Amino acid sequence: MSPRPAGQDERELQRQEILAAFEARARASGPRGVVMAELARDLGISTRTLYQHFGSKAEIVQEILGRWVAETEADRARRAERRLSAEAWMIDAAEGWLQGQDRFSAAFWAQIQADYPGASSLVAEQIRKSLAATRAFLAPRVRSDLDPELAILILREAVRGALDPKRCDRLGVSRQVAIEQSVELWCRGALRPGSD
Amino acid sequence: MVATSARLAPDAARRRVRDGILDAFSEGARSRGPRNVVMAELARDLGISTRTLYQHFPSKADLVASLMDRWADAVERRQLRTMSDGRSPYEQLLEAASGWLEGQCAFAPAFWSQLERDYPETSARYQARLRRILEVGRQNLMPFIREDLDKGLALALMQASLRAAADPVRCDRLAISRQEAVRQAIEVWVRGTLRPVRALHVVPDSD
């Protein structure tokens, strides 16, 4: 690590604080509900300082979601290293999505899609990559008498259902249990015996 | 029609005319929706007077109600038959799913939307009958589901995966027929959810 002047460290620290405070405010009601002047006041900095770090709200949103993407990527790399069984791999992946889903509200995601095309395409690209990785991992393990694309479609439907809070409430199961059982059921039904 | 009916008992003749009217109505209503079937044209095509038509069915609503009753009767009969002739749960599911697919093809979307909007009572009664049929099917499968699974979740999963597999747009993209997609979805579910095959030969309620 190269030594950095103290001023730069402080600057970086301040930047982190702004990001964390913004995320905490935006998590439930979305970025639209965060007023920059209030954010600055609560952090004890001037709006001018705030805007020196980030030129716009969109820049903050972009960075927050950029980090989220990086974390998801790191999770994926860790999963690949751990050489998990297909079932454990999928449960791990689905639980990662569950965490992502709970981290931000539906309103948050809706606003991202409507107001922040840059961040929105970042997220869309990440979802596309995750799905492609899932497909590449699972397709060779699907039993040969099944259409692999169809089998994966059924899995997606199962996981989507398991992540749906309303559905889980109706069935009286936790999302965790719903994910585990749905994935286990699918593995047993769709994968070659003994495929890890 | 008058010549043949003269040789039949009056009840049987009446019944035949009635069935003929229902068949013809069903033909038009399924594809164009009940609203777009004109009663006078229906009578003309059948070679009967509108008066005779209205003697059998006082209104179009009566025709629609009879049509839906007849359809639900057929679904129910099919279920009873497959449940009573000793087929495996897999075969029973296949049979039920193919009946459901036939129903999807037999009625145009316009039919269902008109039914719901213009004949809410008939629509509600039909939906209630279908729910009962579905519930009988679910209860019938229950004893075969592995003990370590949440049965409600497993059944919900089956319905979701059948719906996904029967989607025409997806099937086109995958270049697979809906029948085949539904069959594969059932196979995945049966293999993953039900007890091992040998357990299916013992009385399922024994434990």
How would you describe the overall organization of this protein?
The complex is a heterodimer of chains A (196) and B (207). Chain A has helices at 6-29, 36-43, 47-53, 57-82, 86-103, 106-115, 117-138, 148-163, 165-171, 175-190. Chain A is an all-alpha fold and 196 residues long. Chain A folds into 2 domains: 1-55, Arc Repressor Mutant, subunit A (Orthogonal Bundle); 61-190, Tetracycline Repressor, domain 2 (Orthogonal Bundle). With 207 residues, chain B is an all-alpha fold. Chain B contains 11 helices and no strands. In chain B, helix 7 (109-118) packs across helix 8 (120-141) and helix 9 (151-165) packs antiparallel against helix 11 (178-193). Chains A and B meet through helix 8 and helix 10 of A and helix 9 and helix 11 of B.
Descriptive keywords:
heterodimer; A: 196 residues; mainly alpha; Arc Repressor Mutant, subunit A; Tetracycline Repressor, domain 2; 2 domains; elongated; B: 207 residues; 0% strand; disordered C terminus
Short description:
Chain A is an all-alpha fold and 196 residues long.
Q: How many domains make up the 3D coordinates of chain A? A: 2
What's the CATH topology label of the largest domain in chain B?
Tetracycline Repressor, domain 2
CATH fold node name of the largest domain in chain A: Tetracycline Repressor, domain 2
Q: What kind of oligomer do you see?
A: heterodimer
How large is the count of helical segments of chain B?
Answer: 11
How large is the radius of gyration of chain B? Answer: 21 Å
Shape of chain B: elongated
Can you lay out the helices and strands and say which pair or pack?
The complex is a heterodimer of chains A (196) and B (207).
Chain A: H1 6-29, H2 36-43, H3 47-53, H4 57-82, H5 86-103, H6 106-115, H7 117-138, H8 148-163, H9 165-171, H10 175-190
Helix pairs in contact in A: 4-5, 4-7, 5-10, 6-7, 8-10
Chain B: H1 2-7, H2 10-32, H3 39-46, H4 50-56, H5 60-84, H6 89-106, H7 109-118, H8 120-141, H9 151-165, H10 168-174, H11 178-193
